[in-house]
Amino acid sequence: MLPAHAFDLYLRHVTVERGLSAHTIAAYRRDLDGYLEWLAAQGIADTADITPALVGHFIAERSSAEPPPASTSLARLQSSVRGWHRFLVREGIEADDPSGRLRPPKAPRRLPKALTIDQVERLLAAPPPDEPVGIRDRALLELLYATGARVSEAIDLDVDDLAHGDVLRLRGKGSKERIVPIGSFARDAVDAYLTRVRPGLAAKGRASSRLFLGARGAPLSRQSAWLIIRAAAEGAQITSDVSPHTLRHSFATHLLQGGADVRVVQELLGHASVATTQIYTHVSVDTLRDIYATSHPRAR
């Protein structure tokens, strides 16, 4: 079949039968227009003549273009090409799929963003210390940084999870429990919240065992926790993007910079594999490199 005709059939399929959005269809059209133009330049006039080698050559050319395409753009291009060829096989237009050997490109590993220790201290000090909501917010922020807990783990805490003195029980992914130490600063902040603020919040709503409560007495939501972190970042005049995971990243990075073993940090974070934790070691290596560059007499 003529590639242009097969292309028209595919676009009709994704538009009518699959009901994809206009934005997605436009992306398919752009990707496949480029693919068909390339095939025409190779002298391909029939979809039966498209081989795995040709498909691979096309993707390789696009991968080595200048400037290099983003991994997300390349992944979408591969998805468009695979979708078209699979459609041709499914409709009985072609017997084989020449794109079957394509593998999606690996997304670049992004290093987590960590705050400096000074930034963390400013962030923790940002909530108003004399206001009930500020006392609660300070307790939440201190706990997140002291334990490396995910925001979802922190808002799921029950009061009884603090019944072990200087350690805290967290429930992570897959309902796996882990015990982590809680430092004196976080413990003092949480104790202040428990004695001075939580009873008043609890009286406004239905009885709840959750540690952190909202203004109406209901368990604090993930969105509310995110807003607390963002407000603290603004109050601390931190201009970099501070996400709900920032304190967790900072917790791990500062531990490693302080000499903690990566496997200890793995246990504290609740990572199933040490390979997940090792991404933080690259952050510490960057710090070591900077110190070396500024301190060693023959580093430059």
Please explain how this structure is put together.
With 300 residues, the protein is mainly alpha-helical. The chain has 14 helices and 2 strands; from the N terminus they run αααααααββααααααα. The protein has helices spanning 3-17, 22-41, 52-63, 71-90, 117-125, 132-147, 151-155, 184-196, 198-202, 222-235, 246-257, 262-269, 274-277, 279-295; strands spanning 167-171, 177-181. It has a two-stranded antiparallel ribbon. A hairpin with a 5-residue loop joins β1 (167-171) and β2 (177-181). α2 crosses α4 (71-90) and α5 packs across α10. The radius of gyration is 27 Å and the shape is elongated. The chain starts with a helix and ends in a 5-residue tail after the last helix. The model has no long low-confidence stretch (mean pLDDT 87).
What proportion of the residues is helical, as a percent range? 55-70%
Order of helical and strand elements: HHHHHHHEEHHHHHHH
Rounded Rg: 27 Å
Q: Give the count of helical stretches.
A: 14
How far apart are the termini? 63 Å
Low-confidence regions: none
Number of strands: 2
Average pLDDT reading: 87
Major pleated sheet = 2 strands, antiparallel
Tell me, briefly, the overall form.
Answer: elongated
User: β content, as a range?
Assistant: under 5%
- Strand line-up across the major sheet: 1-2
- The oligomeric state of the chains shown is single chain
Give the class from helix and strand content and strand pairing. Answer: mainly alpha
